[in-house]
Amino acid sequence: MMQEQPHDTIEELLGVYALDAVDQHERRLVENHLSRCSLCRNEVDEHRDVAALLAGEVVEPQPYVWDGIISKINATEPRAVAPVVSLESKRKTPFFSSTRWVTGVAAAVVIGLSTGLITQSQRIGDLTFLITEQERQITALAATLEADPLEQAVAAALADPAAQIANLTAEGSNQTMLIVMLPDGTGYVYQSNLEALPTDATYQLWAVVDDKVISAGVLGNQPVLVPFHIDPNGLQGFVITQEVTGGVPQSEADPVVGWIKA
């Protein structure tokens, strides 16, 4: 029957045992103790949980670590073989020696794994930042593609320093209309608070060019964004009238709002 070892002696071997780094004799001593000690069994389980977490990433030790170990081994003088002694009389000597050696190796492994985990965390952080930035750019691009082409054209015209803004108003009325005009004669009705007309009526835009009134477009009964094009040479102003649906070639109606070029 195997003699029960002191609790303190077995406790020193628990970490080594959890790493499966004991010889057969030590294993039997530890397992014999574990069959009777729930406290030590719990400690072994904790050691194994930690080892399982650290095993998630294997980090290759740097070459200089192994070179240092080899140089120390080579520098150590040979020792005479010690006589065989009874385990009962010298039970602590092999335990302490084994524990110190394995503990040193385990510490080196933990340091190496910790360094690898920190490096990996930094890489993950960098990748997360790049992915977030790419997602932001994709979202911005998608928003641009989804925007109405006419709205994009109006925004570009408003951003053009060479564009001219015409504010059509009427005396004694709060109705207005804004037009942005590019140098090439491309224009956009982009803002209006004109009253909505019946479905059988429409607003019509007229350009005053060289003292002549020329139709520049039918705007509908509730203008929002309406493009048009005229010859910019000789432009003197704009006028809006209320006409029948489809517009007319010449108007006899009074202007609703208008703008005269300064």
Catalogue the unreliable spans: 87-98
- Portion of residues within helices: 40-55%
Please provide the ordered H/E string of secondary-structure elements. HHHHHHHEEEEEEEE
Oligomer: single chain
Strand content bin: 15-25%
| Whole-number count of domains | 2
Spatial strand order of the main sheet: 1-2-3-6
What is the average per-residue confidence, as pLDDT, rounded to a whole number?
A: 79
Structural class: alpha+beta
Give the tally of β-strands: 8
Give the number of helices: 7
User: Overall 3D geometry?
Assistant: rod-shaped
What does this structure look like?
The protein has 262 residues and is an alpha+beta fold. The chain folds into two domains: 7-73 and 90-129, no CATH class; 154-260. The chain has seven helices and eight strands; from the N terminus they run αααααααββββββββ. The strands form two sheets. The protein has a four-stranded antiparallel β-sheet, covered by helices on one side. The protein has a four-stranded antiparallel β-sheet with strand order 5-4-7-8, with no helix packed on it. Mean pLDDT is 79; it is low at 87-98.
